[in-house]
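Hi R.,

Here's the chain you asked about this morning:
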Amino acid sequence: METYAEVLLPIPLERNFTYVLSESQVASAAIGARVAVPFGKSKLYTGLVLRLHKERPEAYTPKPVFRVLDDQPLVSPVQLRHWAWMAGYYMCTLGEVFRTAVPSGFLLESETRVLRVEGTDLQGEELNDLEYLVLEALEHQPALSVGEIGEIVDRKRVLPLLHGMWSRGLIRLQEKLQERYTPKTVRYIRLHAQYRSDQALETLLDSLGRAPKQSAILLQLFQLQEGAEKPVKSKVLQEKAGASRAVLKALIDKEILEEYLLEEDRIAVGEEGPSGPMPVLSPHQEAALQQVRQGFASGKPVLLYGVTASGKTEVYVRLIEEALQENRQVLYLVPEIAITQQLVHRLQRVFGRRVVVFHSRLNLMERSELWYHVQAGTEKAAVVLGARSALFLPFADLGLVLVDEEHENTFKQFDPAPRYHGRDAAIVLAGYHKARVLLGSATPSIESMHNVQKGKYALARMERRYGNVLLPDIQLVDLARQYRQKRMKGRFSEPLAEAISETLASRQQVILFQNRRGYAPIVECQSCGHAPQCPNCDVSLTFHRYRNELRCHYCGHHRALEQTCEACGNPTLDTKGFGTEQVEAELRELFPEAIVDRMDLDTTRGKYGYQKIIGAFEARETDILVGTQMLTKGLDFRHVGLVGIMNADTLLHFPHFRAHERCFQLLTQVSGRAGRTRERGKVLIQTYNPHHQILVQVSNGDYEGMYKEQLYEREQFRYPPAVRILKITFRHKEYNRVGEGAAWFAQALRQQFGTQVLGPEFPAVARIRNQYHMNVLLKIPPGQPLSPTKNSIKRIERSFNAISQYRSIRVVYNVDYI
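And the predicted structure, written out as tokens:
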């Protein structure tokens, strides 16, 4: 009786497909293992076995599995369970979760290869120029990829050409599976076995008397081996001996030396050696640690509310040590890659080689190798420090989940699906592993503190800085008054400029925060008022002076800045607003002796971009660091005396129900970078609204006041945490069609849910990448069950897709919209 496999494919389809296994494949196939399967006319995909059974599908004839790719399951049952929860909760397909969760190195796909049909006579066929070029190329090379043929004929779209040639029998097509992950191998050198006796070696050295370069390589090999059979890399031997590859190859060809390959781990780890000492905790940290342990004993997630620089990381280290003593793994989630640079050094000083980092800057091969280490539960992957995607790793036995800066909105994935929240998904994952959960923040999210009040979370507090260092002195600078009294120096008020001078004179460092990159957000003509717009999005182009270009931060469109206005031709272009680049330029003019650096998306694109900037600032090679919000999250600089916020109003007046909460969190976090050692730090916030309630709360460190006020407003206007919000976005390239489709969908929702539905409305930026967007918000009250609500929405979507003119509109769900 035939055996069938239900296979999950990494594509956004609501259903799975059944394939038939051959007798030889049945033994190696297992739930969670990868299989290569045909899908469509000729494409091969990597699928995942979800179920093995004997039930032949009735609706279609199952295709055979092309190949079983794994001897052991790649994905564990706990992972599959977590994926299923994520797909159901965040209203996406299991295939989309599969594609996001698994490193792309494991998702093998086939590449179409073009081969020439034997016996084709070029002279006897009527060929056009492009067909002749393809067949002539295939005479010199037996097989070509579609991309290679595109380069030969100098065309992007070559499929119609190839289809025509295939239908006439001139070429044939073949699918070749591309193995994307391969172990890293390194070349090593050793002396050939026949020369390992003393007599043979003496004879060999005598024979090489007239070949000094070859003799030098041999002598260098003996030195590197240090009298033992220590492996020596070919590359190292060449460098030490100062010889070329040709000299080394000559010795290999003579069978004097032999070259062999060894697999090498790509995962970077700390230095060899024993673990370092545990940090000494202050009485306040000890008290917080006891509160955390009591919370764990109750079986609840614990929220650790500690002011900036209170020493939360030292408490984390103690909890990690306890988990490692139980031989369980630790997941340490951070919101930004930038934080990992400092944290990994602090953790490696204590835990040595047991700490590993996982984030999007790792290359494809590194991510794949780390997957295997975590799955095997090796010592190297005992502590995984990473951004939100690290929660998809196949933990063998997860014992502790730490979510640092749990309030950060960067834990939420917005595109592509699944649009999950890393904090919430990590709590669910911990539940499956029966692991403990700790959420840490100096400014907890309204939702997390609300969960404490409702008894869902336990609470631990750290209300003093480590060493009883005073919180920074926060002052508000009235920009309107400064401009009126003509005390501004460019974008710098007189108090801020003087404070920077004093701080530099005292040999301390300065951080300046401006939450906008580029030089200026708008370039405007003074004659006609024209501002260059992005052709793909409804936004103005941002000016980047260091490249002299205009760039769209939504789609990446860019072009050089013209010297004259493209509308009226006058050379009267001027900039409006300012970004980090302009702040950096003005600092260099105001403080020419200071060393200024900038940390934003433009300067940290490289794999080691963060590392270089943060390392230079820590080593005090940089005096002033200008940056966006990536500066605010958990970084620990010991010599920062002043923090300046260039313009707090852009955060206050953002059109979002969380604007005030985020403004408080961001300003409090960036203020916390100042004065983290003995001397009290200073913070200056430039604003046109110095009496605004949120800014006053920031200056007083009044989190409780902010929380009560924001919770009251959310309850009055029915926003989270008083209700859940599900945002439904409609996308299409036609303005009228997306409007009509969104209106139809919203009307159907109102028939089901009444006044809980808001919209449809165009967002502030209505067109992105030539797609118009419209939003509908559904407010779900606490007593309304989520699962039936989502099922009702899915039924409406099926009816929506049955209407021909709406079928091309893309519907996107964002559950727990933030």
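The two ends are 52 Å apart (CA to CA).

Let me know if you need anything else.
M.
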